[in-house]
Amino acid sequence: MKNILLLTLSFVLTISLFAKEMQEVQPEPTRLESYTKLQKVLAAVEMLYVEDMNLSKIVDKSISGLLHELDAHSSMLNKESYKDMQVETKGEFGGLGIVIGQRDGALTIISPIDDTPAFKAGVESGDIILKIDEQSTINMTLEDAVDLMRGKVGTPISITVVRKSENKPIKIDIIRDIIKIQSVYAKTINEDILYLRISSFMDMKVASELRKYIKEHKAKTKGIILDLRNNPGGQLGQAIDTVDLFVDKGIIVSQKGRDEKDDEVFNASSSNTATDVPMVVLVNGGSASASEIVAGGLQDSKRAIVIGETTFGKGSVQRIIPITDDGSEAIKLTIAKYYLPSGRTIQAKGIIPDITVAPGEVVSRDESAFKIKESDMRNHLEEELNKVDTKKKKTKEDEKKEQDAKKIITKEQVMKDNQLKSALDILKSLIIIKG
Length: 435
Prior knowledge:
Blueprint: H1 2-25, H2 31-48, H3 55-70, E1 75-77, H4 79-88, E2 92-95, E3 98-103, E4 106-112, H5 117-121, E5 128-132, E6 135-136, H6 142-149, E7 156-162, E8 170-175, E9 177-180, E10 184-189, E11 193-198, H7 206-217, E12 223-227, H8 236-246, E13 251-257, E14 264-267, E15 279-283, H9 290-300, E16 305-308, E17 316-322, E18 330-339, E19 355-356, H10 377-389, H11 396-405, H12 411-415, H13 418-434
């Protein structure tokens, strides 16, 4: 009996090992078998799904679902969305003025674009969209969300968001409008500090505008603050050209994919360098993609000190591939990842600043402008009264002064921005060290 039991166990073990071995050597389904499986599913949906749906729509949904499952940045571009994307690169388009993505499966606002309806309504980087109007965004694709947010200029929309700093969801009402992006503008601080703000890299004029402002202020500029906060990215070429304005040699960024044909290395050129003055770069959680390439490239090359908060972490390369004969529809497919000069990747990690500084106002004593001596009281009050009573028409000279004032960042404005104040202090130190 014992021998029979041992023989049975031995036989079972042999069968198990044989089955495991067969499983290991069993070939994967052939391409034909895989295509056949897909064809059967499409046919079943077309014939049996509870709602009538034509094959074209089923195929579109299949493509959209496939790309959505690959990663957060691959997607299908139908005729409308493909056309909108092409218009965006020209710097003017319709919408809310927000860049959205998916983080951990949640529809997340990467950043609002400066001076757009969403920006003015109070939308913030990192907000998670819970509802669009009254429709839940749970399990909603990026394409569906974008379609819902599109609409005629002047029409209202509301989005309900979850924000880390708030105990309950916030409902934000926005009016759709034409989005005109001023990608670059310049201001001065104390005459010798040039403040350059890049709100996005979506159009093709970023680097040329930067070069123009640097040239205009070159005589007086001792240092530069490059503000990339809430910059959602855009054109890779513009990011590379921007770094090239400040770096005269070495790698700016490289990209590597599965196919060696997609591997590229972008190097700086000394002939393109516009300035060598000390500089700092401001970033936050809304800095993504192209703006991370700029911040990371300048950081790795030791060209600038990066200040602020860890960036979004979007370091993958997408290629637009037309899928129709007339070129009206396309897919956006992730084909590679970006790598900074040091070899590190941005993807899901972001750029960690050299100096972390929280946003908010600078904490300081309340130095009231109304502190005057007793002996000055009468004359001072008379002057204040004259300011109230005097009604003087604006002259052309007054208007020019107002326009010039808009190009300057005042001490009061600096004190309202803790990150900018820290950047200014550090830049002054760098200028002193350079002599």
